[in-house]
Amino acid sequence: LGPIRSGTARPAGGRAEAAGVLLVAPLATDESVSKGRDYVFQANPTISTRGRVMARFAKNGLLMDRVGVIYERSNALSSRMAEGFRREARRQDLAVPLALPLKGPRDWSRLPTLLEDSTLIETDTLRTRRDSASSDSLLAETEAFYLPVSGQSAAGKIQGALTGMRQVLPGKRVLGNAEWHDLPFKEAASAVTATYTNGFYVQTERAAVQRFVRRYRLLTGTTPDELSADGRRLAYAGYDVAHFLLSVLSPSPSRLTPRTLRTAPTYEGLGMRIGFERENGNQAMFIHRYRYQQIELIR
What we know:
Shape: globular
Number of strands: 12
Low-confidence stretches: none
CATH topology of the largest domain: Rossmann fold
Mean pLDDT: 93
Strand content: 5-15%
Number of helices: 10
CATH architecture of the largest domain: 3-Layer(aba) Sandwich
CATH class of the largest domain: Alpha Beta
Strand order of the largest sheet: 5-4-3-6-7-8-11-12
Order of helices and strands: HEEHEHEHEHEHEHEHHHEEEE
Largest sheet: 8 strands, mixed
Radius of gyration: 20 Å
Helix content: 40-55%
């Protein structure tokens, strides 16, 4: 179990692979940690997986057929989530008729102007004419827009984007990522029924969570909620990943194999869901939406 981050998990994974020993990285998000490896797993969904999960849910959960993408080209995480969404959309037969790559963080608040410039819009086919009429038609036909936001001042970017969306694309649903969680402007997010993936979510009212908090306090003198955001995440992630591995180990008298992890049923932890679904990266995430100025867990 471990290392925690991608920078150390990547070389450790190489040694584990060579030795034929299973390694599960709890929080590493870079695809290269487990890519091309049989014995290395990532319990935290990779950056591209977050886009893929949203595309699958848009098609199979929300029953959508056409979703546009607006992403920040200069932000590596935003770009990778957008690319993951577009790749999975092709697999799911979900059309991505257009995409708008933003040059930098300030462009999130300039969507009305940028969407009017047809030369900036990427289309799903080179044969599509890049003129205002065809762009307007594509915008009108698109059912929702995926906005993977990341980086500093993420909430400010989202607020600017929502303001612009209301001006030029009223009534369009917005899809997002974990940065959309617990925004201070829930009314604006509810107006577009913002729906997003989230890899970490603690339901404090659950009895199992309350028991864990009490045991943690007895052991350490503090509670996970009194730690920093990273410390809180580590406390729950450490418990969930360890408990998942022990639950997979306990019914099997033989040595744990990569196939055992890939085919294990999805584990519902205190703050994480873990389900590899025949892959080496966790595919299980929470899905939330804003509705009536409240956050709802819908899957």
